[in-house]
Amino acid sequence: MSQWNQIQQLEFRLLEHVDYLYDDNFPMDIRQGLASWIESQNWDTAANDESMAAVLFTDMIAQVERLRSQEQNFLQRHNLKIIQQHLQVKYSSSPAAMAGVISNCLREEQRILSSACMQEQGPLEKSLQNSVGFERQKNMDNSIGMIRARVQILDQSVKYLEDMQDDFDYRYKILQSGDQGERNNERMKQIKLKLQETLNRLDFKRKDILTKMDIVIKEVDDLMTSHLGPVLRDWKRRQQIAAIGGPVLTGLDQLQNWFTLTAQSLFQIKRQLDKLGELVLKVTYDSDPIPLQKPQMDERVKYLIYHLIKSSFVVEKQPCMPMHAQRPLIIKTGVQFTTKVRLLVKLPEVDYQLKVKTTFDKDLPPGRVSRQFFILTNNTKVMDVEDYSNGCLSVEFRHLQLKEKKYINGTKGNEGLLSVTEELHSLSFEACFTVLGLTIDLETCSLPLVVISNVCQLTGSWASVIWYNLLTDEPRNLAFFNNPPRATWSQLSEVLSWQFSTFAGRGLNKEQLSMLGDKLGTQKPLSDVGEKRGSSRQQFPCADFQVSWSKFLKENIAGKTFSFWVWLESILELIKKHLLPVWNENYIMGFVSKEMERSLLNDKEPGTFLLRFSESHLGGITFTWVEHDNGEVKLNSVAPYTKSGLNAVSLPHIIRDYKVYSDGFAPENPLKFLYPDIPKDVAFGRLYNCQPSKVDPYIPSILIPISEMRSSSSSVTSPACLSPQPPMTPGEFEMLSDQICFNMNTMTPPYPE
């Protein structure tokens, strides 16, 4: 079943989250009409490859055109035409941006599908949903709308004040132009009286405008402090969570709109104050309120503009290597990486190019890190206006590269106590420009980075990125791993499930997470081992226990030579490269303890088997099947298959062709039913490879996985007595010998129960 078909079967609560993903950036009509084609493309790679993105963009426009030509409904055909034109205008100059949008939507769909099997959302996702609630968005829109309306009214008031002042100026000049003798006649007295009345109204109007302007400035200040600031912090927090596999980051366009509208209101107030200053030069008087109040209001407006624009300079795309786009914040020396910054405020015309300079480990205290790096490539670029971002400025660095500094005499100086993968670094961005006579220094920085020199350090580095962004919202706490905090299991289990939904397409259910909790050595075993898979009972520990950083990555699992995260990461890698179809069909139970395995299979038919990941081998998968021996239930587990074996034969093939050679009897396949009772060929039939369609002069050969199983009595018999019983014919024996020799490279003896 396609991913989009699965999405449409979700409950209403989850469909609302899907609805939030699709807007003008990627209309749902296209997702619906081109579902199969969209899901068959590699959008992750295209988002970081302009040439590939351009090909996909051209193909998508052609697909939309085909869809439109086949549509019978006139209104829908018209809508598709509008959508096609909109996509062409929006993404023709930036197809990689379209690929990034689609990649995010597909990834978020996968995460939503994964969460559907969970009985409740985790604490992180709940907190993120609260931060972007509909009510909060509506309140922001209302507040900004009211401020914009009041500023427009102030514009009209200043215009009215200017007209009133022109009237006063006209009357005053008439009075001044009259003869001295005429000034005492009745007409001149009336003019003086009118002039005084106009001046009184003028004074009242000036005071009224300044009072209302002061109120609006206070409202903008409160909006920035109490609303815009927290919303920006929430967005940055959601960016952290999205970086480690959480809900896809959305809302930047909305945030940009709020920042721009607020800035436009401040720019407008600044122009109004400048206009009041011009009016004072023409007409002033004793106790004129403008010279008394305008300087202070000018300073407040400049202060708000300055801080609003400074805070709007954000890292839109955190540094990442294109080949590892799903694992940002890890940089390998000598390998190009990309990053992008954006100014969320649409500025008035700037009379020069706005250059952004990026610096690595700027102002880092000496002795903080044992390794130092510099940017090898060009580190300065000019910000451009993006059409698809409503005219705001942004710049993307696509070809940055790090190089480690050379040290005198080959020594690095201070060798830190932290490992390479725990050492955090930072990438800073700086720019400076002048707007409305105000010079603004912009500066922002990436989230902490881990720098590696070998891909073998990727596993530990990703653990560091997860731990940091899970447990702190500080943007630059580079000393975090000097004393890393503990994570609660509810936090950690949610993020572990995200790793599987992000990298393997399907997250973990509560039973699988329960076993992982047990693997960390802190969860009590189930009291009722007879409980079956699929039970509604929550298999979590009573207390939300804590997990230390050392327990997660640095300490080996009891009795093993590897840590918890290294073991889990090897499984992720195995799924991604060899088991995706089987994993996404939910055929791999995966994480199940020995006790639970016995409980699940104990009363099943002979030949019932389940698939689980090995606890003793890194990146291994095994199957355990039921066998009845003289009325007793016996469980057999095959030696784990790892990537080396799965490179030669796929897991569905292994299950189809697996044979057991037992004490001389003809080999047979003991695997009949996938747990609980699905016939093997029904479950895996469509995953078996198709027969080659081309004509080949060779007879096709296959690898047959075979195990040798001996009874306990035969295992102690002398070699002279090991001939098969009952005896085979010479032809049978020769055929079996050839078959065993041919498949020696796939022989995997079953484990004893």
Provide a concise account of the structure shown.
By secondary structure, the chain is an alpha+beta fold. It has 23 helices and 23 strands.
Write the layout of secondary structure elements.
Elements (H helix, E strand, L loop, with lengths): L2 H6 L3 H10 L6 H6 L1 H5 L3 H4 L3 H21 L3 H18 L3 H22 L6 H9 L2 H44 L8 H58 L8 H31 L6 H23 L1 E8 L9 E3 L4 E7 L11 E6 L12 E3 L4 E3 L1 E2 L7 E8 L1 E3 L19 E2 L1 E9 L2 E8 L3 E4 L5 H14 L15 E2 H16 L5 H10 L26 E2 L1 H6 L9 H21 L9 H8 L6 E6 L7 E9 L2 E7 L4 H6 L2 H7 L1 E4 L10 E2 L3 E2 H5 L21 E4 L20 H13 L7 E2 L2
Parallel strand pairs: 2-13, 16-20, 19-22
Antiparallel strand pairs: 1-3, 3-8, 4-6, 4-11, 5-9, 7-8, 10-13, 11-12, 14-15, 16-17, 17-18, 18-23, 20-21
Helix pairs in contact: 2-8, 6-7, 6-8, 8-15, 10-11, 10-12, 11-12, 11-13, 12-13, 15-18
Please, could you describe this protein's structure?
The protein has 753 residues and is α+β, with helices and mostly antiparallel strands. The chain is 48% helix and 14% strand. The chain is built from 23 helices and 23 strands. The strands form 7 sheets. The protein has a 6-stranded mixed beta sheet. A 4-stranded antiparallel beta sheet has the order 1-3-8-7. α6 (50-70) packs antiparallel against α7, α11 packs antiparallel against α12 (252-282) and α12 (252-282) runs antiparallel to α13. The radius of gyration is 35 Å and the shape is elongated. 32% of the residues are buried. Mean pLDDT is 80; it is low at 523-542, 690-695 and 712-749.
